[in-house]
Amino acid sequence: MTKIALISHGCAKNLVDSELMLGLLSENGYEITLDETDAPIVIINTCSFIHDAEKESVDSILEMINEGKKVIIAGCLAQKHGEELKKAIPEISALVGTTDFTKLISVIKSVETNGEYIEEITKTPEYIYPENIKRQQITVGSSSYIKIADGCNYRCGYCIIPYLRGDYHSRKIEDILSEAKDLVKKGVTEIILIAQDTTGYGIDLYKKPMLSELLKQLNEIEGLGWIRVMYAYPTQMTDELLDTIANCDKVVKYVDIPLQHSHPDMLKRMNRPAFDYRPMIENIRKRVPDVAIRTAFIVGYPGETEEEFEHLYNFVKDMKFNKMGVFEYSREKGTPSYSMKPQITKKVMHERYKKLMELQQGISKKINESFIGKTLPCIIENYTDDGYVVARTQNDAPEVDGVVYIKTDEQLIPGDIENIKITGCDEYDLIGEI
Q1: Which of 140, 263, 264, 389 has the fewest CB atoms inside 10 Å of its own CB, making it the most exposed?
Q2: Residue 224 has what pLDDT?
Q3: Domain limits, CATH 2.40.50.140, in the chain
Q4: How, if at all, do strands 118-120 and 94-96 pair?
Q5: Domain spanning 143-369: which superfamily?
Q6: Cα 130–132–134 angle (5° rounding)?
Q7: C-alpha–C-alpha distance, residues 306 and 92, integer Å
Q8: What's the rounded Cα separation, in Å, for the pair 83 and 89?
Q9: Dist. CA 173–CA 338, nearest whole Å
Q10: Which CATH superfamily is domain 3-120 in?
Q11: Roughly how many angstroms between the first and final C-alpha of the chain, as a whole number?
Q12: Angle (CA) 274 279 285, round 5°
């Protein structure tokens, strides 16, 4: 059998798709590698969320073609730019859409045998999770993602995802529980629930939101340490869900709720829920004691006035979010905002980005300083080259938030949860000892 390499770009949701592709290849007897120099055929699972992500994916494609590989492009870039991509890079061997990766084996066989270009792209994608494929994980560490749904029923003005992934489709509770139990058997301590919108989980299948029920059932799994929920949506932040987060001992007290902006006029233009978010934030903090709230905002969306940006700046200043990401607006073809006027200049966008991030750095430093002297449960991740143990608190999701650096001679095992005394900090990371 031909050896096949896989390169994965983009978000955690894309990573799960890449792991499903690897599982499919493995089940069909292919030898797989993550070292692209070692294989004649390379699958590149691409991202197309914003322009920078597309550029990264295209750079990968060109590099592999220059190295003489047969290249199969999968995922969002293939779905969004299929024909243009083939015209621009005629050496591509195949294109596979976001919801067509289950056809990967027949595509590979065609590329292997006759070498003719092949395209498998469903024009109107509908993502149904392939429960019959066993994921082969790229990273089996202390934590692992579980995709509980895909697709999206919202049509935010800046977002291309619904056009690339289709409408929202939840997985059955029993399938998610089964996957979680398998991960725990493999030694995973923390599972992270992901979807385009986790709080909408179950509405399509069970006719009501079921994230709360799912968390309660996951909380019963023996051997599981932490459960984390990402990508919540403002209108679904119900008291029932918050009480479940507060009362389930394994569910970390962490709410990730990308709000995108604070000014009601901006939110309307973004086609987002336009209401005052302050009472909601206060309610989250009241119902979930010691909660860490992560959010994200977009600056420079078409038409954003200085007054609207100041509204956002003051909102961030008042709310003092534990964690915050800021993105400069990316103009994407196929989204409602593409033709909106006026478009904000890159210079103004970047100034607003810097101003908001500098504000957040000060907030983050003060929050981190409040932990000095406290003992916090931390999940052990790995070791640095200079002898530090890297860990995370419940307030930190992997890859997007901070870490704890621990100086110790003790042998700490990745995946274990240890009590760590916090002794110092900077804007984003903590320093601790055991």
Answers
A1: 140
A2: 97
A3: 375-433
A4: parallel
A5: tm_1862 like domain (3.80.30.20)
A6: 95
A7: 45
A8: 10
A9: 38
A10: Methylthiotransferase, N-terminal domain (3.40.50.12160)
A11: 49
A12: 125
The letter for the amino acid at 358 is: E
SS3 392: strand
Helix-helix angle 278-287:306-319, to 10 degrees: 20
- Inter-residue contact 292 to 255 (CB < 8 Å): yes
Q: In this predicted structure, what is the pLDDT of residue 334?
A: 86
Beta strands 430-433; 404-407: pairing state? parallel
Structure tokens at 137: 């994980």
Q: What size, in residues, is the chain?
A: 434
Token readout for 169 is 């489709």
The residue assigned the tokens 């320093």 is 431
**Nearest by Cα to 188 from 234, 150, 129, 140:** 140
Q: How far apart (Å, rounded) are the C-alpha atoms in residues 343 and 202?
A: 37
Collect the ranges in the chain with pLDDT lower than 70: 140
Q: Where in the chain is the domain with CATH 3.80.30.20?
A: 143-369
pLDDT confidence of residue 140: 62
Q: Find, among 50, 65, 40, 53, the residue nearest to 8 by Cα.
A: 53
Under 8 Å between Cβ of 209 and 201 = yes
**What residue type is assigned to position 197 of the chain?**
D
Q: Which residues contact 81 (CB under 8 A, 6 or more apart)?
A: 48, 54
Query: Whose CA is closest to 201, among 182, 180, 173?
Result: 173
- DSSP string covering 173-213, please? HHHHHHHHHHHHHTT--EEEEE-S-GGGTTHHHHSS--HHH
According to the CATH classification, is domain 375-433 in 1.25.40.20? no
Residues 6+ apart with CB under 8 A from 400: 294, 323, 325
Q: What is the pLDDT of residues 349-405, one digit of tens each?
A: 999 999 999 999 999 999 999 999 999 999 999 888 888 999 999 999 998 999 999
Tokens of 240: 């029932």
Tokens of 120: 């498998």
For residue 372, count CB atoms less than 10 angstroms from its CB and return exposed for 0-12, middle for 13-18, buried for 19 or more.
middle
**Which pLDDT score is estimated for 138?**
82
**d(C-alpha 362, C-alpha 108), whole Å:** 51
Pairwise CA distance, residues 337 & 160, whole Å: 10
